[in-house]
């Protein structure tokens, strides 16, 4: 299932967020949590265009894994991507956003040098 949202900020810039559920039931709570976290990235990095968020379940014997969260960001240059396998999607979103923040800091530094 694919869902799409647009976020409009104070300067009338939009960021599109697409949600893709693979073997997972659609969740407003997950979408709101994701939009909140990604909205913060959008505020700090105005060059972001779009985010694709993927939720997927895996069969696993471990109770610490099985919920796969992936986020792909569209920005100038190569796309940024991260994924994680945790026991909850909320933990996965937080882990992915932390990793993307690290990647975005590197990207912004490279952009400043040009």
UniProtKB/TrEMBL annotation:
Species of the source: Gangjinia marincola
Gene3D superfamilies: Ribosome hibernation promotion factor-like
InterPro entries: RHF-like (IPR036567), RHF/RaiA (IPR003489)
Protein name: Uncharacterized protein
Domain of life: Bacteria
Pfam families, A to Z: Ribosomal_S30AE (PF02482)
């Amino acid at each position: 299932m694919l869902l799409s949202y647009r976020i409009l900020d104070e300067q009338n810039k939009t960021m599109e967020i697409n949600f893709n559920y693979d073997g997972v039931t659609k969740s407003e709570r997950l979408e709101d949590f994701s939009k909140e976290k990604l909205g913060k990235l959008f505020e700090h990095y105005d060059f972001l265009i779009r985010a694709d968020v993927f939720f997927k379940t895996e069969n696993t014997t471990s109770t610490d894994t099985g919920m796969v969260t992936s986020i792909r960001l569209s920005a100038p240059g190569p796309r940024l991507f991260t994924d994680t396998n945790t026991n909850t999607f909320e933990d996965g979103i937080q882990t992915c956003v932390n990793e993307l923040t690290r990647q975005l800091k590197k990207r912004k530094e490279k952009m400043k040098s040009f």
